[in-house]
């Protein structure tokens, strides 16, 4: 068996965390290739190394003295080296990096957190260091050249039995360092798993996988032990974020499972993400997630159904203002467009005026302070009465549903409610599908 093992920023925040990583890696000989992020926060008032590197770059760009920021970065790495008794000449390499700061691009600067962390981790584990710049290749359109990346990666595997690999970056088509979006270490691990045809991609972080609901809203929600990529995508979009959602795609097609695990509690079972599995969910739903801060634009026009392209024209106006549409519930002569309030914060009245002028609706108004809650579950399509149970649970709590939408693959039912009912809605759905089910067992 081959496992790609990726450790997030909280897992490599200091020497104590490095020791936990080593114990985890040594506990399983199939953990041959390790991917690391830059050191994260050691406590709530601390700084992530990547944030400090972005700040260092800002000082460079505006010609402001960056020595204080650099000292913080340097000290973090030196502290790890000293406490672990490592011999890596990290001080010299860091000082050279800072001396040449003005010759680097932003991507080069912010990628150094992963680079230096991987150098230290490689020595600590007794593994070889492989630089992502020499392996991961971006195309001109910023997609990954999987064929070239796989060839280079397989050559390194033939050369080294074990190695540590920095996440977050690779090299562009013209051989310059190029970074992923924040959280890109997750994507790096996924790429390695895909290119090496791994049996498992382990993603170690500071939580024990996914929960069926936000623990800040529901007391002691159940752990999700297994979830499909499709379900995860739905929940992640609505705010249940543990894994960078782009990390799903490289391994989804190959059906390589992702195992979310907790570095601080390695004994916890975690959550396994896999599209095709024979494991049956004990509940009709997999999870509940939601977000507040939406606006609904309601439009009515007589005989709208006979007018070709009316909805498209409204959407074209929203597109001009770079507004993304969440949902479009519709009737015969009316429809609503649900958008994120932050997207229309400065342009809502201008958009409404333009719709009135160009499309002359008989009625148009907005409703603000809306929240969207998604109930997600692959088993829902095979479980009669799910929608009825959901709506009854909200009706019993006197919660007024402002909008209903169901995904075409029937794994998601989304409702809109007023923000004041946001938490009560999530609790009500959870109680109906989990708490009461447990009580009936």
TrEMBL record:
GO terms for cellular component: cytosol. Pfam families: AA_kinase, ACT_9. Residues 375-441 form the ACT domain. It comes from the Bacteria. Its EC number is 2.7.2.4. It is an enzyme of class 2 (transferase). InterPro entries: AceGlu_kinase-like_sf, ACT-like_dom_sf, ACT_Aspartokinase, ACT_dom, Asp/Glu/Uridylate_kinase, Asp_kin_monofn, Asp_kinase, Aspartate_kinase_CS. One of its GO terms (biological process) is threonine biosynthetic process. Belongs to the aspartokinase family. Catalyzes the phosphorylation of the beta-carboxyl group of aspartic acid with ATP to yield 4-phospho-L-aspartate, which is involved in the branched biosynthetic pathway leading to the biosynthesis of amino acids threonine, isoleucine and methionine. This is Aspartokinase. It comes from Faecalicoccus pleomorphus. The gene is lysC_1.
């Amino acid at each position: 068996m081959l496992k790609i093992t990726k450790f997030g920023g909280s897992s490599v925040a200091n020497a104590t965390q490095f020791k936990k990583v080593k114990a985890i890696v040594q506990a399983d000989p199939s953990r041959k290739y390790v991917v690391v992020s830059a050191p994260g926060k050691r406590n709530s008032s601390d700084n992530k190394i990547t944030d400090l590197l972005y700040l260092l770059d800002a000082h460079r760009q505006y010609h402001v003295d960056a020595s204080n920021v650099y000292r913080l970065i340097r000290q973090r790495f030196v502290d790890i080296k000293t406490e672990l008794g490592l011999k890596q000449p990290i001080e010299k390499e860091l000082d050279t990096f800072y001396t040449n700061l003005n010759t680097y691009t932003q991507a080069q600067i912010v990628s150094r957190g992963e680079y230096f962390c991987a150098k230290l981790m490689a020595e600590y584990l007794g593994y070889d260091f492989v630089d992502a710049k020499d392996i991961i290749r971006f195309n001109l359109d910023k997609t990954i050249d999987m064929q070239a990346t796989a060839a280079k990666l397989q050559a390194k595997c033939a050369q080294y039995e074990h190695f540590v690999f920095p996440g977050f970056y690779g090299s562009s088509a013209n051989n310059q360092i190029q970074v992923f979006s924040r959280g890109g270490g997750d994507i790096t691990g996924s790429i390695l798993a895909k290119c090496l045809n791994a049996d498992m991609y382990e993603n170690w972080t500071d939580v024990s996988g996914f929960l069926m609901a936000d623990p800040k809203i529901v007391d002691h929600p159940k752990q999700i032990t297994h979830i499909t990529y499709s379900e995860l995508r739905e929940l992640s979009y609505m705010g249940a974020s543990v894994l960078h959602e782009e990390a799903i795609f490289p391994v989804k097609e190959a059906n390589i499972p992702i195992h979310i695990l907790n570095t601080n509690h390695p004994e916890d079972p975690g959550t396994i993400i896999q599209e095709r599995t024979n494991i049956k969910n004990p509940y009709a739903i997999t999870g509940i997630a939601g977000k507040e801060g939406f606006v609904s634009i309601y439009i009515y026009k007589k005989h709208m159904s006979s007018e070709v392209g009316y909805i498209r024209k409204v959407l074209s106006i929203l597109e001009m203002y770079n507004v993304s549409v969440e949902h479009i519930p519709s009737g015969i002569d009316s429809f609503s467009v649900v958008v994120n309030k932050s997207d229309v914060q400065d342009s809502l009245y201008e958009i409404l005026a333009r719709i009135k002028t160009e499309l002359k609706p008989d009625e148009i108004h907005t409703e603000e302070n809306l929240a969207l809650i998604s109930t997600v579950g692959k088993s829902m399509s095979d479980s009669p009465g799910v929608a009825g149970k959901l709506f009854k649970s909200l009706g019993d709590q006197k919660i007024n549903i402002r909008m209903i939408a169901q995904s075409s693959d029937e794994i998601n039912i989304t409702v809109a409610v007023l923000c004041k009912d946001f938490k009560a809605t999530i609790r009500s759905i959870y109680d109906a599908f989990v708490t009461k089910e447990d009580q009936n067992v």
